[in-house]
Amino acid sequence: MCRPTTRNTTMLMQKNQVFQHAEMTEETIHAGQSLSALFLTSATELVPAGRAVCWEGDEAKHLFQLVEGVIRLYRIVGDGRRVITAFQFAGDLIGASLQGDFLFTAEAVTECKIRRVSRKSFDDEVAPVGCSSHRIHLPALRETAAAQEQMVLLSKKNAEERLCSFIAKLASRRNLQARQSVLRVPMSRQDIADHLGLTIETVSRTLTKLASRNVVIPEGRHDLRIVNLACLTQLSGDADDFLEESCHRVSLH
Amino acid sequence: MCRPTTRNTTMLMQKNQVFQHAEMTEETIHAGQSLSALFLTSATELVPAGRAVCWEGDEAKHLFQLVEGVIRLYRIVGDGRRVITAFQFAGDLIGASLQGDFLFTAEAVTECKIRRVSRKSFDDEVAPVGCSSHRIHLPALRETAAAQEQMVLLSKKNAEERLCSFIAKLASRRNLQARQSVLRVPMSRQDIADHLGLTIETVSRTLTKLASRNVVIPEGRHDLRIVNLACLTQLSGDADDFLEESCHRVSLH
DNA sequence: CGCGGTTTTGAAAAGGATCAAGGGAAGTGG
DNA sequence: CCACTTCCCTTGATCCTTTTCAAAACCGCG
What we know:
Two copies of one chain form a homodimer.
Chain A: H1 6-12, H2 26-40, E1 45-47, E2 52-54, E3 62-68, E4 71-77, E5 81-88, E6 93-94, E7 105-108, E8 112-118, H3 119-126, H4 134-156, H5 159-176, E9 182-184, H6 189-196, H7 200-212, E10 216-218, E11 223-226, H8 229-235, H9 244-251
Antiparallel strand pairs in A: 1-8, 2-7, 3-6, 3-8, 4-5, 4-7, 9-11, 10-11
Chain A binds a DNA duplex through helix 7.
């Protein structure tokens, strides 16, 4: 009775972009504006690569807007095992969905520009605006959706699917900024491994394998040439499966 | 402004260790009351075991309060692989942190009593109350915290640690209801496996191993005698490590 | 140009998954 | 109340993916 049915499968296929085109009500827009305004009142800070902007367990007295650069959010468990729960990119809000303490350490992957506002002024300024919970929820919503996706990745995907998912997602946000087929990957292999629940060696090997199949080609340590995006998406495992075959045919050298 | 207090465990506060001591401001309490009130206006529905109360992808026109029983939230990925992202227990709110569509299917594990309210009245009634985002965020917060913990579990823990984490968490919520050392585990092995990112066989084997080490002893399919809670906690892998040795000594038969 | 850290590659080992069968409890019908 | 069916769970044996350990290659940098 609890077994998967085909009905479920079809219905669920829509992926996780669910929130990319989330509701833009007047409220949302209005709130968005007041939000930018709030952040604009504070000067941008420059954070060098490797520096943390907040620590797990610290009281979340501020939140941050990432203006430029890439940040990793992570937790350390037990004996120094690190789990990168998410990467954040330009435009993202860090700590907006928090109360109390930070649940993660946020560390610059690349040099970053951030703006910071106190939680108090955030609550005071932004919350009263449009209160039917829409806007307030939005960052938390995205976070939740991302977390769910990550859980799926971690519990059901193999190394290749994980890596392809990761690259495809990176590529898709890159697309928004409109570019060619070379994708910047600012994070180290260790970062990627810690995000995907793999070891650095497995990441490396899997990448090599993808290269040999002509899906993506590493160019230096931090760039990837996307040769076959369709295939990449296929291999990521959450796509519709109907092209699987053709993809393999195309991709095999 | 957000200091924890010990009194007054309202409906929402009881679960989920992380936020057990979350903020109980006047606002929160007030909102909690208005929330209970809202839910109390709707009659309880009886949901038989195995029945779904909402489906992934459906528009979230309602939210639910779980009055009694256990519910699993899951997503189906690709070819019928099921990921149980969370279990929900009496007092939990389902769908409160959503906008738009449900991100999961919610299905009764045991027979359940639920109350349901429309999202509209939830937003209208509850949101305007205390608007500085505190109360609104609480369910979402818990969810996020739980999701993060789950990511840690899935990316860094081995089968034994996963199972021990799971049992320990169950046991800790059980404790709140004050009972003896026999823990009810309403979900099937398959449910547990799909939640922990393992196969049913591995769950079974690991349980057997724990039994042979005298940590927990299965009594029938849905009960566990907790013999050595300290050890269980140790083995869950997110505890402080200082007792690791002694624990092993104690546990080895 | 040599040096330190990162990445790649290789070989061996381990932990789970998978495949296959057997056991047991709950429910059904006689 | 008992035989029978069924479903769920356990156990065993083998296979496969990923990890682990080790060393070589690469690359940016002083």
